[in-house]
Amino acid sequence: MHDLAGDPPRERTWHAATGVLLGLALGDAMGYPTEFLNTQQITTMFGPWHKMEMPLSAGDVVRVTDDTQMALAVGDALGEVTTNPRGSGGSWAAPQSVAPVQVEAALRRHFVSWLRSPDNNRAPGQTCLDACAGLERGLPLQDATVISSKGCGANMRVAPVALIPGLTPEQRSGIAQLQAALTHGHPTALAASDLTAHAVWLLAHGCALDELLPQLRLHALQSQRKYHAEWLGNLAHKAGAPDPATFIAFGWDECLRALDKLTDALRDPDPDMDPCVAVGAGWIAEEALATALYCFLVVDGDARASIQRGAHSSGDSDSIAALAGAFAGAKHGPRYWLPEWVEVLEYRDRIHDLGRLWD
Predict the structure, then answer these.
(1) Which SS3 state, helix, strand or coil, does residue 168 take?
(2) Annotated domain spans of the chain
(3) Domain 2-358, CATH 1.20.120.610 — does that match?
(4) Over the range 140-164, which residues count as b (16 or more CB within 10 Å of their CB) and which as e?
(5) Per-residue model confidence as pLDDT tens for the chain (359 residues)
């Protein structure tokens, strides 16, 4: 497990970044038309889960939701601050130069750009809209964020954080939590985003499926009372917590309970059971992570089956399938995503540009 400790990371020979971003977008697109439907309705419209096809929208395009749009906003922001503009390709910035003030400023710009984009018409969550409006007004993130919200809108977009080579584990956790804190200030939103990014990173660096949950539990336990003040500032104080460690521990405790529920569900796995019944509906951060992991693990990491199982669910289908697709893409790279799906995928060019940058 030395390779998983972050020093040194194993070379990613299977183009994990491209695989993750494609998987996230394809899962999001497959779950887009099934969100808010029950499983009987989904079966009537799209057939059984293992036979689902990618839905085409007007103009033969596979449309995505705000999940992919905001993940790309995170990716574009991080691409700016982690490269030096030399020539057409850029070069890597030294990891120590990736500072919180730079990351926050870039994320703020791209979140506000998403807020005002004419393509921001996919029924985005109110938490993101309200917080991004505050960011646009120049409020400090601790005042702009919705501190009470632990919706899944933060961890469904965090995957790009795990794809940047050269970051230390502390930087990766700090950036994952910061990008969450800009809109979702609840400690569980921060912890679930950190844990989601860690899951993607582990899989992209060769973690075996049977080691994934133990490694995630270890990360949660080691992070349980670690407050990243350099990245979060006085967010804990703004939330009214007695101290920063107590504030963040609440989030990690909820994530650990979600991992417990996931572990119990996998003791007697049933691929044909609605994942939202088995683990949770996924509207909140820790459930979105746990249910997506269930969709990925219950099919033994199969790429296409992971997003089919996530999309054919009675809860937050697009977010669950998007995360399941990110996990599958981290494990396998892009080779198992059907070319006929990718060719008509919305934002395909932006996804490939980011993939090339980090692969």
Answers:
(1) coil
(2) 2-358
(3) no
(4) ebbebbbbebbbbbbbbbbbbbbbb
(5) 334 444 344 444 569 999 999 999 999 999 999 999 999 999 999 999 999 999 876 668 899 999 999 999 999 999 999 876 544 445 555 555 689 999 999 999 999 999 999 999 999 999 999 999 999 999 999 999 999 999 999 999 999 999 999 899 999 999 999 999 999 999 999 999 999 999 999 999 999 999 999 999 999 999 999 999 999 999 999 999 999 999 999 999 999 999 999 999 999 999 999 999 999 999 999 999 999 999 999 999 999 999 999 999 999 999 999 999 999 999 999 999 999 999 999 999 999 999 999 99
Q: Which amino acid is at 174?
A: G
Residue for token pair 């199982």: 309
- 148: CB partners within 8 A, 6+ apart: 185, 186
One-letter amino acid at 256 equals L
